[in-house]
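Both lines are given unchanged directly below:

***
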Amino acid sequence: MKNNLFSIEGKVIVITGGCGVLGSDIAQYLAKEGCKIVILDRIQEKGDELVAKIKADGGDAMFLMTDVLKKEVLEENRTAILKAYNKIDVLINAAGGNMPGATIPPDKNIFDLNIDDFKKVVDLNLFGTVIPTMVFAKAMVDNGKGNIINFASESALRPLTRVAGYGAAKAAVASFTKYLAGELSQKFEGDYRVNALVPGFFVTNQNRDLLINPDGSYTDRSKTILAHTPFGRFGDADELLGSVHYLISDASKFVTGTLLVVDGGFDAFSI
């Protein structure tokens, strides 16, 4: 008899930031594993293209325009999802990003920090996780079970140069993940899990210019990162998929409040 410990077929999975490099890869993979995928993002055209691609491969998906900072919009999304699928099994909070003003390049210092951009980065990464969680976890509590996967970052584990705002926000996401794991399990009857992925360095649309020169060579920043990564390379987006699958499946049914690091050894390395 086949062991179904890792089966995730039929699960309804909501992904915020689902049109991003990592989010779209996760959406397509989970659809191929038999999940029903709800992609939430801000750009209709990208969402429609991703849904079309998933359906062309035989998957089940829908796209909804959203704003992860507006509770009323997310509540409308929730109503549409429940109408279509009757439940929400998993929420993946993949929305996030950075802004130049919230970083401190080598030729500047803390006194040059743009506090407005800092606030925007914290809003997007922290409140863009907290608010969707409040909205979609309500559907989970009403159903007696649910699974939430947040996106933290290597910068949540140790302070990285330059990314002041992003690092602060992701550290808060990591803390919120652990807090919420206890909150849901202790205050509501049912089965709830809350964990966070901690990706190391992956080349995405947001950081490409920081890591890759126009001629395709590595920037000095990249060289420093790779010198501190035992694997000696950046991660490929599909190298997050196994960890996502594990956290969704019953293989991790006693795992909650954890930070799952996927970084090629960066966090473990020292000199």
Remarks:
- The first strand starts at residue 12 and ends at 16.
- The radius of gyration is 18 Å.
